[in-house]
Amino acid sequence: MFGCALEPKMAVHCVTLSELEERKQKQLNENGDEEEDCSEKFPSVGPMLTSKLGGFCNRKFLLKRLPILQWLPAYEARFLVEDIVAGLSVGLTVIPQGIAFAVMANLEPQYGLYSAFMGCFVYCMFGSCKDLTIGPTAIMALMVQVYVGSLGANFAILLTFLTGCIILMLGLLNLGFLVQFISMPVTAGFTSAAAITIASGQVKSLLGLPGRSNEFVDSWINVYEHIGQTKLWDAVLGFTTIGVLLLLRSMRSKWSLMGKYLALSRNAAVVIGGAALAYYCSTLGCKPFSLTGTVTPGLPPIKLPPFTTVLSNQTLAFNEMASMLGSSIIALPLIAILETIAIVKAFSKGKSIDASQELVALGMCNIFGSLVSSMPITGSFTRTAVNNNSGVRTPLGGIVTGVLVLLSLGLLTDTFYFIPKTVLAGVMIAAMFFMIEFHAALEIWRTKKVDIIPFMVTLVSCLLLGLEYGMLIGIALNICFVLYMTSRPSIDQALLRTSSGIEAMVVKPDQSLIYSSIEYLKHEIIKRTDKTQVTTVIIDGSNVSYVDSTAAKIFSSTIEELALRGRTVLLWNWNRSVRCTLIRLNKVQFHPLFKNGGLEQLDKEICNESLP
After folding, report:
1. Pairwise CA distance, residues 330 & 333, whole Å
2. What is the pTM of this model?
3. Is 83 exposed, middle or buried (CB count within 10 Å of its CB: 0-12, 13-18, 19+)?
4. Residues 323-352: pLDDT tens digits?
5. Is the separation of the CB atoms in 573 and 28 below 8 Å?
6. Burial 208-224 (b: 16+ CB within 10 A, else e)
């Protein structure tokens, strides 16, 4: 096996691994013998800022922030039909879902459609994932209902604008890496709890019961208290809707091409069927179902989001509105980012994703959406799956979806009056069945059983305390797991006997030394030294790439304590940056202790240190 090194002229020299090891060892020995310059310079902020800011003005940055400039020049005519078909399929899905989400958020039905088109247009320019569709979702609608409640549409629109600004800022600051701190068990627990909560909140509409609660516990209390007021025909139509949707979904891979697209547009099919049935009943003079009611016709006005509003005959300024929105200004961006990044990862098919660019795109979608009276939007897993199954080739399919929504606002709003609420509830509940991640729980249990704890804690906390608090509890618990692991490094131990019969103990921590782990390392080294009664302790630093100031100070006290116990300490194979950190703390103490080399060299060093 060979390793290859490139010279400046691009000539390639192949050397054996043993030769590379010899070179590395020679360099280590030279560094150990020479007096090292261990001075540390503070990072120069000016050049770093110049480099970062200079990147805003070049072609590479423009292509990165406007992905349409990459895929549009390479667009082929044969992609057009597939993008149109996919866009129509997503459009037929988002129209009934948008109306249902608006009702769930305690907004008038048209706001769901206002939220369904601008994200499609904007993401086409700024988005990097061809499958992702941005628009209203059940989780965001539920969060709007929780925070906005009966405050009115103006608060929801302002929340959209603020959500977009925060997400855009995080994207421009390249903080997309922060989503890496949200683990898969926490994400799965949150998504499952959200699906259960949403489905529970729709049971009242499914059965035609009074009440407006959408929280998990309150929803079932409401059902229990009003179960005697169940409307028979609402319940029959609702359960029939769920049955038809599940049947069409299960048979989508068994039908012809026409049947496939019927299955993909199943939400639109059941809504149209329910509206037609309700209209037919109205012509006979009976109204067996609870209907959606009047949907304001026409396109939304393009205007700035409301920074002032009137509530209960009192004019509220921007700061008062923001104060009333409370923690939603933080919770909604977090949840929107979580949903979008999770979907992009799921549909990236192993390709690397630019999380920061996705945040830029999502932020822009919300900001522009607030100009057309949209409620907060994010990526939709259901519609993204429809988009992918329909064979979309580029983000251009989103343009078709947006145009279809605009046409429905202009031409079909009178028809929306007759959509039964129980049908919309059935659409929501059927979609939630497949958001509960049973498979993820089984996978977590099979892979690492301890990870089921953050999954279950997140799930239960979200159900009992609310989605935003449950998410924060899950993240906090998972971070506690990580902190515990970093504070308890694994330590390998071995006993050596030199050629002259001297016994030594080698301890080797498996990670860098930071303030949270150094006390544990000190305790373990001293405990094991006392137990083995060796005269020489060798601390192998092969795996240590970083030491902070706290760890350096306590490490110094560890060596002093071992010296007081009559033990000789050697620091074996520590890299230069760590050596310099320790030498800057106490050169007299640390510099003589550093040794490098193989076992033969180590044998000589132990013998030399043990001589009287």
Report:
1. 6
2. 0.73
3. buried
4. 988 888 988 998 898 888 878 877 776 677
5. yes
6. bbebebbbbeebeebbe
